[in-house]
Amino acid sequence: MSTREEIIHLGDQLIRDKGFNAFSFYDISKKLKIKNASVHYHFPTKSDLGLSILDDHTKKLHELIEGTATKSPMVKLNAFLSIYTKIKSEGRVCLVGSLATDLNTVDPKMAKALKVFANEILEWVTSILQEGRTKKVFAFQESARTKALMIISNMLAALQLSRLTDEKDFYVIQQTVIKDLKS
Fold first, then answer.
1. Domain boundaries in the chain?
2. Of 52, 114, 116, 160, which residue is the least packed, with the fewest Cβ within 10 Å?
3. How many Å apart are CA 103 and CA 100, to the nearest integer?
C-alpha cells in the first residue's frame, strides 16, 4: 500500500471512529510514523483528504453495483446489507452516517460529494426494490424510494444504536428489513 493509500485508509477509519472534525493531519502522521508535511504533500487540505475518501467509497459502490447487476433483487439487497454487516464487524459507523453529522462544517465541495454519494446509494437501493417488486420478490406498500429511505435509515441507525444497546439488535433490525419485504 502506498503512503497516499495508507493516509486515505487511516483517514477513513478516523472519520468513522471519531468524526471528520475530531482528528487532524498530526494524528495521521503520528500513527503512520511519517512527517506532517508528507500528509500535506498528498493532501494539501483536510477537505482534499475527505474528497479522496468519498471518491474511494464511491468507486467501491460502483464496483458492487456492477458486480451484482445481473443478480437477483435478493442477492443485490443482501450485497447492500453486507456493507453494514462489514462495518458492524469493524466496530465502526458508516461514512455517510458519520459525515452527515459534520455536513454544516465541512467544505462545500465535500458536502456536495457526500450528497452525491448518498443519493447514489439511495438510487441503487430504490432500483433494487423496484426490480424486486416488479418480479414479485418483494412486497411493500410505499414507493420504492420511500422504502429505500426507510431501509437505509434503519441500517444507519442500527449501526449507531447497537453500540449503545445489545449487539444483537443490529442483526434483528437487519433481518426485520428482509422479513418486511417478503410479507
1. 51-182
2. 116
3. 5
Residue-by-residue pLDDT tens, the chain, 183 positions:
899 999 999 999 999 999 999 999 999 999 999 999 999 999 999 999 999 999 999 999 999 999 999 999 999 999 999 999 999 999 899 999 999 999 999 999 999 999 999 999 999 999 999 999 999 999 999 999 999 999 999 999 999 998 898 778 999 999 999 999 986
- Measured between alpha carbons, how far is 167 from 121 in angstroms, rounded to an integer? 25
Q: Please, are residues 132 and 77 in contact by the beta-carbon 8 Å criterion?
A: yes
- The answer for residues whose C-beta is within 8 angstroms of residue 43's C-beta and 6 or more apart is 7, 25, 49, 52
User: Residue 126 class from Cβ within 10 Å (0-12 exposed, 13-18 middle, 19+ buried)?
Assistant: buried
The CATH number corresponding to 51-182 among 3.40.50.10770, 3.30.465.10, 3.40.50.300, 1.10.357.10 equals 1.10.357.10
